[in-house]
Amino acid sequence: MAKARVGYLGPEGTFSHEAAVTLDNVEVVACSSIPEVLARVADGSLDKGLVPLENAIEGTVSATIDGLVFEHDLFIEREIVLPIHLHLLARPGVKVENVTKVSSYVHALEQCRGFLSKLHAQTEQTTSTSQAAKDVANDDEPSAAVGSSMAGALFGLETIARDIEDHPGNATRFVVVGRDAIAAPTGHDRTSIVCFQDADRPGSLYGILGRFAARDINLTKLESRPTKLGLGDYCFVIEFDGHVADDLVADCLADLQEHLTRVKFLGSYPVTGDDAVDRREEASEARRSATEWIESLRARVRR
Fold it and tell me: What domains sit in the chain, N to C, each tagged with a CATH number?
């Protein structure tokens, strides 16, 4: 069986690379940017892509969510949560106190803001943590990169300060995206959608959320995004427990599609965590009970 070609944000040694190599029976392909990963999956030159969607500290990765919402019609097939540990990497012999410039991906720099403020070094953004390590390896100046142990080992750098992130428990949620198939239900799933409105009016968000509440569907994330059509024009990215194959979820999506300008389906996929299964089973049982009750009443209507 041929291996699926999976693109990730390169070069080798990024956290995306670490997440990608956890996948089975794949050939991983480095790309220069998140938009390139998504575009190559969309045009068929890659089978799938792995991209960062959300970080525990910095929140949503804009390049990913905007690409999925506005630029491509791809489905999220699964997620991978990777703990993030950031280190200060430099060429052998460079000391922390001698570093004059620190480079890395913008999110990595933000996650180490406290440490870097004490360093009093210039910061510079790069396209990835691994690209920063690669640049430092070729720099004659006393520069350093914020990145992973893997990146340091790949480019011959030493770790001169370890675990420099400002907050413990940092993690990034990556998603695998493809073109055609929706992942099969597992009973432990999440669905992601985007809700667009025809107009901004009082109660419009409540009208969306009320449809989930009425069906006891648990929302796990709600985020507004500018539609890029004009100032103050927003859509809503919503994640919730359940799969499109579930009757409750299908009914809710049909209701939303009927009453909104457009609902974009981003995928139903397996998730990590232990609580979603119990919540869905409880909600499904409550719905079955309610359905039986209403059917018993309707059966008594005079014909």
Answer: 87-161 (3.40.190.10), 186-297 (3.30.70.260)
